[in-house]
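Please check this:
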Amino acid sequence: MAGMRGRQTVRDMFLSMAVIGVVVAAIYMFIPHDDTPAPVKAVDYRVELVTARRAAPYPVLAPAGLAQTWKPTSVTYERQNADAWHLGYLDPDGEYVAVEQSTAPAKKFVAEVSHQAEDTGETQQVAGETWQRWKGPKYDALARTDGDATTVVTGTASFERLGEMAEALEADKDSGQNSGTGAGASADADSDASAGKGTGTGTEQSR
């Protein structure tokens, strides 16, 4: 008799769990769900840009005149890390593009910021300047060295988009349109981002 009651208890427990499961599933089905990822917020990097341009031993570059569909997402300047300047963007196709500058050894620096891309030996002309093409499993890159500083435009975007960014770069203190507010900035990248690269002078969002 006790054994029968025990079996009934176990059976009742499983039946109760099954009923609860059905109820929970029904509730879940009828509750609206929005699986759309939250849009990446743009950053206003003007303060960081001014800070970097005052501190860096090379002309710090930022884009001017980009279309509103380019969105700045991350920015850092790390003076103690070979004066590393980082500016991350999402291009009009939603691909990641970053501007990286540093006085670190060029070959090591390009490989690091491009996630181990390799020099293809090919070049790309951008606004009359020659950039080296690097290609990698994660990011591609355009790179060039002027004096002690190396500039890299890298990311998941096509070489055409990387070229657009490279062509827009300028060293003037007034970086013009799209310096964070011109791209519909609501304030972030880096990731990309993601992923804080800064040391107090920048804002980084996961990439």
Observations:
- The first helix runs from residue 2 to 30.
- The beta strands are 62-63, 71-78, 84-90, 96-102, 118-126, 129-135, 140-146, 149-155, 169-170.
- The first strand starts at residue 62 and ends at 63.
- Helices lie at 2-30, 46-55, 106-113, 159-168.
